[in-house]
Amino acid sequence: MLVNMNDILLPAKEGGYGVGFFNAVNVEMARAVIETAEELQAPVMVGTAEVLLPTMELERVAEYLIPMAKKASVPVCVHYDHGLTFEKCMEALKLGFSSIMYDCSTASYEENVEKVAEMVKICHAMGVTVEGELGHVGDNAGEGKLENPSDYFTDPDTAADFVTKTGVDSLAIAVGNAHGDYAFPPKLDFERIRVISEKTNLPLVLHGGSGLSDDDFLRAVKLGVSKVNIFTDIDKAGKCGIEAGIAAGETSVMGLIPYEIAGMKKVVKEKIMLFGSNGRQP
Q: What is this structure's pTM?
């Protein structure tokens, strides 16, 4: 069933478990996520991000994800992640996405508040939820890499003010996490997570989940993280599945698809079980 973010994250926050958000840039990824969620009776979030649109454009993603979510036997939120432009967020809204992240974290605080508050007003009028980001979660490599990540960590008092002024439904925070592969084990600021959770009383979001240790996840969820973003891990798992199929002698794309899906389903299952959302279908 297609639901919005609150339908999934508010019970998660109250129940003390986490929910995975998995990017799905093709049908095989979407199948791996939703089929595994159904097998484990787990609510799940799935979608795409603006930086991934060169791989699969937004309209094409909506064509397969939204019908799959509606037919699913578990709650599925179709989320547009890291929307960087107002225009693309509006496109996702018109296409039927049930949740939007409007990422204005690189703008000034005042501009971030103004833009996100406007997005919240529009989306809430249509029953769609909104995620904001305060602080900035950079990348582990490339143009998005931050020289001094701690300079961009989320301030708890500012977070409380941001939540009040914007009306967001969840908040992505910067606490030592980053997108992509970690060159070195990250050091999350767990005390910061705890304080932000207490001051905002909202489901918190941890971006850059691939590569974190199981202990990192468990502690973060216990302290207030309700949504964890995963992409790199399932992307790699799909590639390994294809390689396993080739090694087994498969010579066609059709023959490789089951291997690709099986590889990704293994990772999705591991994350769902780790976050504790299995068996949590409302």
A: 0.90
